[in-house]
Design goal:
heterodimer; A: alpha+beta; Chemotaxis protein chec; 27% strand; globular; B: alpha/beta; Rossmann fold
Chain lengths: 204, 121
């Protein structure tokens, strides 16, 4: 079992790297949607992957959600998977805004597209700061309009040890659009990540 | 007498990064604040010539600080250093009186460029 603990200083460092990467992703999303995105400080939390589905099951209890997954692979064993969770309440409005037609196939296509914009921009920004570079698998939908999504999340999460949970609240100008992003990474990548953070901290 | 410069950012890493990346030719006393409320308390109690201001912060964000500086007609220059790089945000902070916008992470090159441009070094 890998020790998952991060010191306060390592955590602050990771939070700032996430902020910078998130800023780049928000800018991309804003351009993609043709609107302004109010950026909040994304709350990050490091949790054991095994406990993840419990957490999200309670948050998404009252609604159905779509999960989109994207795998990434970097140098020196840094790899993992991101999962975007979308609440579906506002999906129709965004589909209209982007000119997707109003059916389930288009909805899936749109969420895959948005996920791709958000996660690849976010991950590229993060990789750059970590002096790494990632390649990506094609995004795939794990679950759509599915009330049992917690099971699917649990199944995916159990392949990894650590989850970096990044709580993203996107508030667009005219309506709210909430999604959560989860970064899942294996134990050896946790060690690599901590070492990289220490290297960055040693520079300042 | 050396100028006093305030670095306002909620992240310790970002504050240290910025402090270390300042041009050596920049002769100033550096002080720090970790949110907008702290920054305003400092700005109202002592003379600060230049502020490096983050935007996305708890308590009071950078836009709030700029609004207060403008409302109180405080005599300090502000360089915004932010990860929120949307054109509309950049336009907004410039309208609120910021001198310049630097995209995070603030590197020595970027800071030297902008500080040279405005005669700060």
């Amino acid at each position: 079992m890998t020790e998952l603990h991060f010191t306060d200083v390592q955590r602050d460092c990771l939070q700032e790297l996430v902020n910078v990467a998130m800023g780049q992703a928000s800018d991309k999303l804003a351009r993609y949607l043709g609107t302004f995105v109010h950026l909040q400080v994304p709350a990050i939390a490091l949790v054991e992957a095994a406990l993840l589905s419990q957490h999200f099951a309670s948050r998404y209890q009252q609604q159905s959600a779509t999960l989109v997954s994207l795998g990434f692979f970097g140098d020196q064993g840094l790899r993992g998977e991101t999962i975007m969770l979308y609440q579906l309440a506002n999906v129709g409005v965004i589909a209209q805004l982007l000119g997707y037609s109003d059916d389930a196939v288009s909805e899936a296509e749109m969420l895959t597209d948005i996920s791709s914009v958000l996660t690849t921009t976010f991950l590229s920004g993060l990789a750059e700061q970590l002096e790494n570079s990632f390649s990506y698998a094609a995004p795939r939908i794990l679950s759509s309009r599915d009330k049992d999504f917690a099971d699917k999340l649990a199944y995916t999460a159990e392949q990894w040890q650590l989850a970096l949970q990044v709580d993203i609240r996107y508030q667009l100008t005219d309506y709210s659009f909430n999604c959560d992003m989860i970064l899942l990474i294996p134990g050896e990548a946790v060690l690599r990540l901590r070492q990289t953070l220490d290297n960055i901290l040693a520079d300042f | 007498m050396a100028l006093t410069a305030l670095i306002c950012d909620d992240s310790l890493l970002a504050r240290n990064q910025l402090k270390k990346s300042l041009p050596s030719a920049f002769d100033a006393d550096i002080i720090t604040a970790s949110n907008g409320v702290e920054a305003l308390t400092i700005l109202r109690s002592r003379e600060v010539g230049l502020v490096f201001l983050d935007l996305t912060m708890p308590e009071l964000d950078g836009v709030g600080v700029l609004e207060a500086i403008k409302a109180d007609a405080m005599d300090c220059l502000v360089i915004v250093v932010s990860a929120d790089i949307q054109p509309e945000m950049q336009k907004r902070v410039m309208e609120l009186g910021a001198l310049a916008f630097v995209q995070k992470p603030a590197t020595a090159d970027k800071l030297a460029d902008v500080m040279h441009k405005y005669g700060l070094i």
